[in-house]
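Anyone able to model this chain together with 4'-deoxy-4'-aminopyridoxal-5'-phosphate?
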Amino acid sequence: MATDPAAVPPSPAPRLVDQQLRTRAQRVIPGGMYGHMSTALLPGNYPQFFSHARGAHVFDADGNRYLDLMCAYGPNLFGYGHESIDRAFTQQLARGDLAPGPSPLMVDLAEQLVALIAHARWAMFCKNGTDATTMALMVARAHTNRRIVIRCAGSYHGSAPWCTPIARGTLPEDRAHQLSCTYNDTASLQTALDAAGDDLAAVIVTPYRHDAFRDQAAIERDFAQQLRAACNLRGAVLILDEVRAGLRLQRDTSWSVLGVEPDLSCWGKALANGHPLSALLGGERLRAAASSIYVTGSFWYAAAPMAAALETLRLVRDSHYLEQLEHLGERLRHGLAAAAHRHGFEFRQTGPVQMPLFLFADDPDLRLGFGWCSEMLDRGIYVHPWHNMFLCAAMTAADIDAAVEAADGAFAALNRARPGLEPHPGIKALMSSR
Ligand code: PMP
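re: yes, here you go
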């Protein structure tokens, strides 16, 4: 019987090193791993440890190579180990990274961000996205002398006690003075606004709905405009959390195309192409409040990540990376849609093409998604079964075509395996608790 070559994955090297590392990690790292990089809620064949990364590819600890459609959950925008960005980083590292004060690069970088991001008149730097969102709330509360923050149910803004999605270890008081509304739902926003009354400090919102485990959704113009108008009317602060989407959709805030400007915007992830840096940007109205709060960190002023960010921003301005991401993203979306159709699957691809999320129809416990991702991994393509993914500018049309070809084999294999598929126990428990 002739075999379909696309259906037969090249066998990956057995992941013995990964297994050994997991065993050692169990002893010295709580739970073996924690946070968003734990493989606990990923298919069983996913590697936990990666030894190196280059361009659009990552290599697990056993030496298997994958096209990485996660881009480290977003930071990789121009490619891992990007030559000019990493040169800027290492040259500054050699000159000096930390000192009793920041380097002149901090002023250069703040100027560049203010020049690039239309609403911004000032910048403050920190390390993680959570630092930036937490600071944004502080600035808003300092400015308004009010308490309540409205956020959209299910939107991720970081892992500080006020916002971590799993409340264990936090107090109800950590989340006091928060109200929630439904993304894109103007009626629920109005209800939250009414409940906040004259105590509304801020509304924090992501530029589009990129929550995990569900289809992504574009921002509706009416909703964005209602947010802006409500904040204007009440003297409250509109915070746009660009940590995940920033610089992948626009060379300004992601809402620049809507003509809706936030008062504060939070940036991280791709800002320095993977080097640790995040930022809070704000308009003139918030300048005094921003200078009144006390926020800092031992590593916040490090110069080398700022050098990397300056070079990243130069590439943002001077290269066609965004157009390339869109082009590659379209190619991937069309290729996957055709492959899914050929094999009889209703495969939902949502969100901007450069930040896609894949879910199968009629797959409430994600067993199809897990089965497919697992097959993709065996074919050298790292995809995620329930989180949005990211394209980077180091990807080529040939990489995308390789992903589509792998998908063809993965869909065929999924059809064969379908009758025996079981849900992942952790996902089953999670889905039944929602
Ligand atoms: N906001 C959004 C929208 C995010 O996606 C993330 C990270 N996934 C954060 C905030 C927190 O960023 P960090 O993990 O760097 O603290």
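Residues 128-130, 133, 156-158, 206, 241, 243-244, 268 surround 4'-deoxy-4'-aminopyridoxal-5'-phosphate (CB under 6 Å).
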